[in-house]
Amino acid sequence: MNEKLFNEIQVLLEEQPLLKMLENEKEYILEGIYKYTLEFNGCIAQGNRKVRFIVLKNFPINVPKFYVFDYPNDMEHIYTDGSVCLATIGEMIYFLNKNASLIAFIDKFVNSFIFTLDWFEKYKTYPFGDRNHGYKGLLDYYLNDLNLTVDQYKEMVFMIYDNKYRGHSQCFCGSKKKLRNCHGNYILPIIQNENYKNMFLNEAYMILTEDGKNVNK
Ligand SMILES: [Zn+2]
Prior knowledge:
Helix content is 42%, strand content 17%. By secondary structure, it is α+β, with helices and mostly antiparallel strands. The protein has two domains: 3-123, Roll (Ubiquitin Conjugating Enzyme), CATH 3.10.110; 134-208, no CATH class. Helix 4 packs across helix 7 (194-208). It starts with a helix and ends in a 9-residue tail after the last helix. Residues 212-217 have low confidence and may be disordered. It binds zinc ion. This is SEC-C motif-containing protein.
């Protein structure tokens, strides 16, 4: 049994009395009203949302799924089944590799998403600025946060796909540093885990084939 995950879920259920847990062989399902708290511009924002978390028992080697209900249909980053695009796979893997905690994951990705959703309902704008949706938004993250060109992103994808990581070779970003001292830190956790690798490559396939159709508009 994944004891750390189980304990974290118990803590979460204590803090969130309106969440109920269901369990099957492979996953924990948490469903109900979730109350978030978040600091924004020095103020404490709070709110409630009906949500569902699906957390595979092999967490953190799988990224949790998150669903919302009763959302405005012009809100971006929500798929037609209510599942939410919280961030890119790369960003979530990078985070989980450093903080293998469900509670930390929820604090980081879910609270800011629900806050954004509440804000959008009130003001029809995005508090943290708009990001593109679909493949463009995903690609933007890789280009901006990892400081890459589209060609360098592709090179990174094929390095992961072909298992061609060599720590001593020069990084594909043009920094002239060795890979292991540069973007290697980012791609190594992806290469070392078959689940992460599959999720990353599925997303890369969507980005590189410019598949925006998966999105709710
Ligand atoms: Zn680099």
